[in-house]
Structure to design on (329 residues):
């Protein structure tokens, strides 16, 4: 039995190769939900959905989000009508008091759907309508995720990290913004002073999460701050990881990040933006998988291989290295 901790790109890419070593029926994936937002009243869960669509074989594999071949008629229509009405495009937060009014899972991350600032495909939107509606009918995010997985034919066990709201908020010198504004609307350009996981001190791990952390745990090459950080902020997760065998795959080759705003965000939280910094961010890790050209040295076992993942063959190679690292602990 093995459990992967996942954000939305690096670990899903690794999971492409997971089946070479691990039976999907015995694999759990815990997804970050700090990136989730409510947009036009719909709960959008980017990391969960990438894993859902990947497991269901419908992921847009060029972008690693959304559904392949999806249309955007509603999204385009929202822009047409917004333009005709003179509405300013860009993230449009709801008023402060509306941020904690309504379904609590969307607290501190509520955006208007006018001139929708993230591109939501039509089929993708049907998932958000269904998920949000079932939550409004009284189901939890975990329950809805389980049913979506059945519908998409996902064989591994996919769990959201929490059924409670946790919002990854980026503090810049001028303002506080949600991660999706920082990343999608601002292209990761603002200076970051700190990252806050609002809600994490009172959020519980979702049902099944702490049990799954009793298995061998793999932290894929995800962003240690915004993908894995929200999970580590949940009560009991750090203690559970300290008790388990944990292998982490570096999202860096030396100090060069493979994708996304990893370096900037690590610097913002006072961690060195490199493989060595990743090791300090994961004090509970028992072994690491790092690139063969990475000269960082470690106080724990290391397996080296080419860790750049561009396709299933690469993913299989890195998963085999993960498996060797688990054996070495
Ligand atoms: N990323 C973008 O860069 N632009 C978008 O318009 C966008 C829309 C979007 C819609 C649904 C979804 O599930 C993900 C989406 N993403 C988009 C990706 C997302 O912002 C991030 O890459 C993840 O949150 C990081 O894991």
């Amino acid at each position: 039995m093995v459990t992967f901790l996942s954000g939305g790109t690096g670990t899903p890419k690794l999971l492409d190769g997971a089946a070479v070593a691990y039976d999907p029926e015995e694999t759990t994936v815990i997804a970050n939900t700090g990136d989730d937002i409510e947009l036009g009243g719909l709960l959008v869960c980017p990391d969960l959905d990438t894993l859902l669509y990947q497991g269901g074989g419908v992921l847009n594999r060029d972008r690693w989000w959304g559904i392949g071949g999806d249309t955007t008629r509603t999204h385009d229509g929202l822009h047409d009508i917004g333009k005709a009405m003179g509405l300013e495009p860009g993230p449009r937060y709801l008023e402060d008091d509306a941020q904690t009014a309504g379904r609590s899972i969307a607290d501190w991350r509520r955006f208007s759907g006018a001139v929708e600032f993230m591109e939501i495909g039509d089929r993708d939107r049907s998932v958000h309508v269904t998920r949000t509606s079932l939550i409004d009918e009284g189901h939890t995010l975990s329950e809805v995720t389980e049913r979506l997985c059945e519908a998409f034919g996902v064989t591994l066990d996919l769990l959201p990290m929490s059924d409670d709201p946790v919002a990854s908020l980026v503090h810049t010198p001028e303002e506080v913004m949600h991660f999706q504004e920082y990343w999608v609307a601002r292209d990761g350009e603002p200076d970051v002073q700190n990252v806050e996981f609002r809600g994490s001190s009172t959020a519980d791990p979702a049902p099944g999460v702490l049990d799954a952390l009793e298995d061998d745990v793999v932290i894929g090459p995800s962003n240690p701050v915004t993908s894995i950080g929200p999970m580590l902020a949940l009560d009991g997760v750090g203690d559970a990881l300290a008790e388990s065998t944990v292998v982490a795959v570096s999202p860096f080759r030396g100090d060069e990040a493979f994708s996304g705003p990893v370096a900037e965000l690590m610097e913002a939280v006072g961690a060195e933006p490199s493989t060595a910094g990743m090791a300090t961010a994961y004090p509970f890790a028992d072994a690491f998988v790092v690139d063969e050209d990475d000269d960082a040295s470690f106080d724990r076992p290391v397996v080296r291989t080419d860790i750049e993942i561009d396709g299933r063959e690469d993913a299989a190679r890195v998963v085999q290295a993960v498996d060797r690292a688990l054996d070495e602990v």
Notes: The pocket of FO1 is lined by residues 7-9, 35, 44, 46-47, 49, 65-66, 118-120, 124, 180, 183-184 (CB under 6 Å). The chain has a mean pLDDT of 97. The first helix runs from residue 10 to 15.
